[in-house]
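Journal club prep — side note

Before the paper discussion, L.F. wants everyone to see what a predicted structure for a comparable chain looks like in token form. Sequence:
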Amino acid sequence: MASSDTDSYSDKRDFRKTSEPKADDVSFDWAESRPVFVIQKHDASNLHYDFRIEVDGVLKSWAVPKGPSTDPSEQRLALPTEDHPLTYADFEGTIPEDEYGGGTVMVWDRGCYRNHKDASNGDEPKSVAEQLADGHATIWLEGEKLTGGYALIRTDSGDDERWLLVKMDDEEADARRNPVSTQSNSVKTQRSLSEIADEEASADD
């Protein structure tokens, strides 16, 4: 993935219209001092889940059409998107239809994460940034809905870069769970997508 930079994020948005945070907004206070992750359910032109992890001061981001799985046999397509500012991890609301990514956004899951790369030969393990540059990163999520190891694996590079998001086979794996279907509401406000959209529309009236 490209180096950390939120210029593309800012260039795609008109902050006079959208309530999304600017790149220079102050950060949130719920994440303690560890790197954060957030998964945002995004009802744009196509419903998908935005998987974001804090790396080098920004949120590295992928759009996951089917959402994350807890089944290690499921390989979920993950399409990289532009880096987002850390404050985006707290964003929930509706983006105007004429803006980039127009639609309703929910904080579906959030928490902290850690590098899950094992040290080899007594050396320090590679950082998550180095792993992403190599095309294979392993992290341990500590969220409200998702916990355990996940791997991000690059399958195609260049202009058509593609990744896979895969649950690692550990004690938190569960092929019987389907959290995308059974745990559909926001961890931030406990609202559904329709409730977020309706309340945002009422506030604008």
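L.F.'s comment for the group: Helices lie at 7-11, 128-134, 179-182, 193-204. Keep this in mind when we get to the figures.
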